[in-house]
Amino acid sequence: MDDKLMLMIPGPTPVPEQVLSAMAKHPIGHRSGDFGKIVAEVTQNLKWLHQTQNDVLILAASGTGAMEAGIINFLSPGDRVLVGTNGKFGERWAEVTDAYGLQTERLSVDWGKPLDPEAFRQRLESDTDKQIKAVIVTHSETSTGVINDLKTISSYVKAHGALMMADTVTSLGATSVPVDEWSLDVVASGSQKGYMIPPGLGFVAVSAKAWEAYKTAKLPRYYLDLGKYRKSSAKDTTPFTPAINLFYAMQAALRMMKAEGLENIFARHERLRQAARAAVKALNMPLYAADECGSPAITAVMPNGVDAEQIRSVMRKRFDIALAGGQDHLKGKIFRIGHLGFVSDRDLLTAIAALEATLQELGYDSFTPGAGIAAAAKVISNS
């Protein structure tokens, strides 16, 4: 049957019908007063979502573009940066800092494990000469389904005085990221995750402390020069041609999010996290990340006795449900269930039911039929 694809991956995520309808409108002039009103509304609502009074800037870029912009606008060649790496995306930001000639120091742990805040504290306290200019951390590591303790790490960074830069691509909109309360200086995210719209927009929140660093930063930049975006944003416009129809989408999505309310959004994602993990345990399949560090956006599973790629293949061909695979050395070893953005209790129950049927088709019999659904339903009904 056509047009029944169900996305249960960590991005792109499902898009609500009213957002699709908004995006289908004819574009208007991006220098018009009408578009300026949309920019103003979207910017204000982005500040609400970020729980910040800081600037939140909008780029025609992916989350990677937003993160690169967040790195290069506030540093100079040769600056020392501390990058936490415990998955694909932490490693990516270290590759970005290497590419720009920064002195990159990695604080690494095995994939599937959370970053150790104590390691950050010790390293920062040992930096008595204040040579470390920025600390870069991925909040929700998309590749492994691990959420890192950004709040605690940021408190150590604040005590040190370095800039706190955070990749919140799969955490913003899925869990609380109170930018001002946590003293986050640079916060990057992308539209195709918790924001519930297609790929194409990147967002960067910037603190007053980061803007001070911007004044003396020497890394090359032009299209990604956030100073240009700041000046334009103050006039409810953009420095370059924006993705007009994605602004329509963002306007509609943020209105939906405000109607649901922050606490309800976060509670829904936490409920889905708990339900997904309970279901996987009931199916006697190992979770890749421990309960205490499982992301509210993605649940990674390392199946025993059945191939992860076979599971994904049957789910896609038989049920038209897309699950994500493993990356790099985890390819073929794990599959990932995305449950962020426009995902409901019904969606998760549907995915778990299809997963049970898939496992039975593949000859995996280490569970009682219905156990996964029962476990997920119990979490949902008790929440």
Task: List the defining traits of the structure above.
383 residues; alpha/beta; Aspartate Aminotransferase, domain 2; Aspartate Aminotransferase, domain 1; 4-stranded mixed beta sheet; 13 helices; 13 strands; 42% helix
Please give a structural write-up.
There is one protein chain. The protein is α/β, with parallel strands linked by helices. A 7-stranded mixed beta sheet has the order 2-10-9-8-5-3-4, with helices on both faces. The protein has a 4-stranded mixed beta sheet with strand order 1-12-13-11, with helices on both faces. It has a two-stranded antiparallel ribbon with strand order 6-7. It is 42% helix and 16% strand. The chain is built from 13 helices and 13 strands. The model has no long low-confidence stretch (mean pLDDT 98). The protein has helices at 17-23, 33-50, 63-72, 88-99, 117-126, 150-160, 208-214, 226-233, 244-260, 262-282, 308-319, 345-361, 371-382; strands spanning 6-8, 55-60, 80-85, 103-108, 132-138, 140-141, 146-147, 163-167, 186-190, 201-206, 298-301, 321-325, 335-338. Strand 6 and strand 7 (146-147) form a beta hairpin. The protein has 2 domains: 17-259, 3-Layer(aba) Sandwich (Aspartate Aminotransferase, domain 2); 262-382, Alpha-Beta Complex (Aspartate Aminotransferase, domain 1), CATH 3.90.1150.10.
